[in-house]
């Protein structure tokens, strides 16, 4: 009788072996990862399969149940994920069975970071940096933390970097909506404030185009996504004017008038 032991997430680090045709699959579930990349990288792999030379009757019988939880009683080295152990954090770090709850930790940390980041960047934009420079700082930090996430060695560092990424990105939304609505009249403030969410939605719709080519390696998804905030800041920063209201409050009335003249001319 085989000893029941949780699998560390992948059993294919030995030499390449012929795989069994018997597989077990179940509709994958994705955690609400937030921040784009998390939705795909935190997803549960679709299916697993027995390794043919393991000659494990327990593995063969478990595969017929069609449930990922069936791997909980299997010995390491008798099965593997069909998509490879780098397809998601669940597969790479074995977030199944008694470690299943850990798969939801990064998403929770991301939204906690977003909550705290909104308060921090809101105060920073009002007190010292202004809206324009806060957006730039937030974009640079978002890009840096997304790239560092792709280098995570374990689930705990990954969760910490997801928190940092959620914290960093908060400054973009709260400052951009202020910059966009301040320069239009009262009549257009409502519609203009909604237009930003259209782009937000379009960004989520573009994720499958990025995620599909990187489906074999979740780290590549974060590396690609890390380029987007940086590109946005470089391309848009020269065309963004500082908030005239903030400049006026800070006693920089001449700069505020210059911004208002540019808005009038535009």
TrEMBL record:
Residues 50-266 form the Major facilitator superfamily (MFS) profile domain. It is found in: Membrane. Residues 1-46 are annotated as: Disordered. It is a multi-pass membrane protein. Its main location: membrane. Keywords: Membrane, Transmembrane, Transmembrane helix. The chain crosses the membrane at residues 101-122, 134-161, 197-215, 221-240. InterPro entries: MFS_dom (IPR020846), MFS_sugar_transport-like (IPR005828), MFS_trans_sf (IPR036259). This is Major facilitator superfamily (MFS) profile domain-containing protein. The lineage of its organism: Eukaryota, Viridiplantae, Streptophyta, Embryophyta, Tracheophyta.
